[in-house]
Amino acid sequence: MHLLPSSSRLRLLSLALLLHVSFGVAAVDPLYAVCSTSRNYTANDGFSDNLRQLMFMLATKSSPIGFALGSVGQGGARANGLALCRGDIKSTACTTCVRTAGARFRDLCPSNKDGIIWFDECMLRYSDVEFFGEIDFDHRFYMWNRENVSDAVMFDGKVENLMNRLKQKAYISPLLFATGKMEIGESQELYGLVQCTKDLSGGDCKKCLEAVIGELPSCCDGKRGGRVVGGSCNIRYELYPFFDA
């Protein structure tokens, strides 16, 4: 897989530290992480203590349903956070992923008051500014398979069709999550997954998914696999099963 931040968000490079870490070891290394450099905290101030409590709370609360959000503290020391696990993984894997994400934040964003980190099985975000219930259009990156298909026009049409089918299922589902597959040849199937954070309404989930599906041509035309991953929703397709049906 190749990885690139969304070109429309490259202006964030002047405002944030973008950390592309090798993802050879999924249990430790994230797919991607962004740490804001505009607001910082020190190791002994109130935000630091509140953030530590928040990370523990999110790891504990996310296990039953694969999602958690919450806030700890008041005023400028208030830490707000959200954790989302992929909708097909087990609760134990969810807890492990969110705990790992919290630990990696201490290494990658040691003094930043705003950060977001993605692993294959979960996403974790925190900020001193409350962001719940709003579509995050700022944080987004692409991943794609370096190999091309033989008939890009036909294949891209199938991908778009599957993604739109899954979008229609996901935004009316309480989980805001859907997976599925589609036959694209006599012996080949296309697999897809879409998901939104559960602080969004169904309508905003649909809007978010429409936006990321619309970005597929920017990264993944004719590619055998691809992802558009954001702070509020993400999509993925592959020519092999990658989720637990």
Structural commentary:
It is a single chain. The protein is α+β, with helices and mostly antiparallel strands. The protein is 28% helix and 29% strand. The protein is built from five helices and twelve strands. The strands form two sheets. A six-stranded antiparallel beta sheet has the order 1-8-11-12-10-9, with helices on one face. The radius of gyration is 18 Å and the shape is elongated. The two termini are 23 Å apart. About 9% of the residues have low confidence.
Features:
alpha+beta, 5 helices, 245 residues
Please give a quick description of this structure.
Helix content is 28%, strand content 29%. Strands 1-8-11-12-10-9 form a six-stranded antiparallel beta sheet, covered by helices on one side.
On the 0 to 100 scale, the average pLDDT is 90
> What is the N-to-C succession of helices and strands?
EEEHEEHEEEHEEHHEE
Total strand segments: 12
Rg from alpha-carbon coordinates: 18 Å
How many helices in DSSP terms?
5
Shape: elongated
Spatial order of the strands in the main sheet? Answer: 1-8-11-12-10-9
Major sheet description: 6 strands, antiparallel
User: What is the helical fraction, as a range of percent?
Assistant: 25-40%
Q: Tell me what portion of residues adopts beta-strand conformation.
A: 25-35%
Provide the low-confidence segments as ranges: 7-27
Spatial gap, N to C terminus: 23 Å
The secondary structure category is alpha+beta
